[in-house]
Amino acid sequence: MMIKSRILFMCVANSCRSQMAEALGRHYLGHEFDVYSAGSKPTQPNPHALKALNSCGYNTSMLFSKSFDQIPDDIDYVISLCQEQELTCPTFPTTVTRLAWPTTDPASASGQENEIQDFFTETLRSIEQRIIQFQQQLSDS
Q1: Is the pLDDT of residue 83 over 80?
Q2: Strands of the 5-11 sheet, one edge to the other
Q3: Which residue numbers are catalytic?
Q4: How far apart are the first and last CA of the chain?
Q5: CA dihedral defined by 43, 38, 19, 81, rounded to 10 degrees?
Q6: Closest to 56 measured CA to CA, from 134, 133, 132, 118
Q7: Torsional sign, CA 110, 53, 7, 42
Q8: pTM of the predicted model, to two decimals?
Q9: What is the pLDDT of residues 99-109, one digit of tens each?
Q10: Are 6 and 38 a contacting pair, CB within 8 Å?
């Protein structure tokens, strides 16, 4: 039985970016990683984020907002999706690989409903590209 590495995507509310990253991570990395998301001030999944994921064919059935204390302690990779100063992070062992992928919070979007949804979909595609690049880097090493 293969033991999978563990990856954590995090942002403040665990409602948009990290939720999208968790769903995308499970899709693209699930064969190699147990994938988690969490936030320093978790709320609930944003309906626009769920709609973007569903409309692009990603599974959202296992998504819910989580705090750091709901995540296993033995994480291998931690990826922050917000500006570091926005997030109050737990302390991770020095063996954890930390990455920062600052991504604009789509929850701050304003305008017509379709414009807001488009911004969420653009954010989803941006995170998707980062995950694909991450996956390629892992396979190249």
Answers
A1: no
A2: 33-39, 5-11, 77-80, 97-100
A3: 11, 82, 89
A4: 23
A5: 110
A6: 118
A7: positive
A8: 0.94
A9: 999 999 999 99
A10: no
